[in-house]
Design brief:
The chain is built from 10 helices and no strands. With about 180 residues, the protein is mainly alpha-helical. Helix 2 packs across helix 4. The chain is elongated and about 65 Å long. It holds the Pfam family Sigma70_r2. It comes from Algoriphagus taiwanensis.
């Protein structure tokens, strides 16, 4: 099907055209979403919502402003960004621990390099307990400065000072290597 036929079929609410669109474009559009949202289940939900939005809003598509795929990709991209910014995601949006992330990469790529191989843990051992705690939660657990401040009842300025001091120690020790 040519792009003009797809647009006309979607505007006519033709079921075969919708099925064709899904069959031909779903993988590419899902790829757009997966670049923004790494959780496959959430990405599928966003794709489903986006696909419905595409079919319902086809009348707002203007051929003179760009190709159909670009318009659909923008809808998927914007939906993924909106989902990422939503309260639902932000409340569960803590990143995985670095070891989980590295394990995930190892299992996908087949490599067996460990975080320990680059000396991160040894460098962390040179920090004070307070600095180590802050760095662990910010860089390895995905917390923001504000979240640490609120959750552990540490003044925000203190959190930022500890981060700054810890980074200076880490930088100094990295320069020695």
């Amino acid at each position: 099907m040519q792009e003009e036929e797809i647009i006309a079929g979607l505007r006519a609410r033709n079921r075969q055209t919708t099925e064709y669109l899904y069959e031909k474009y779903s993988r590419a559009l899902m790829g757009v979403i997966l670049r923004i949202i790494s959780d496959h289940d959430i990405a599928e939900e966003v794709f489903h919502d986006s696909f419905i939005k595409i079919t319902r809003k086809i009348d707002s598509y203007e051929e003179s402003k760009g190709r159909l795929y670009t318009w659909m990709a923008n809808i998927c991209r914007n939906s993924a960004i909106d989902k990422l910014r939503s309260k639902e995601i932000s409340q569960t949006g803590k990143t995985n621990a670095i070891d989980d992330f590295v394990f995930g990469i190892e299992s996908q790529s087949g490599t067996l390099e460990h975080v320990e191989g680059i000396g991160v843990r040894e460098l962390m051992n040179q920090l004070t307990a307070d600095q180590k705690f802050i760095i662990e939660y910010i860089y390895f657990q995905g917390y923001t400065h504000s979240e640490i401040s609120e959750e552990f009842d540490i003044p925000l300025g203190t959190v930022k000072s500890r981060v700054r001091a810890a980074l200076q120690v880490l930088k100094k020790n990295l320069e020695k290597i």
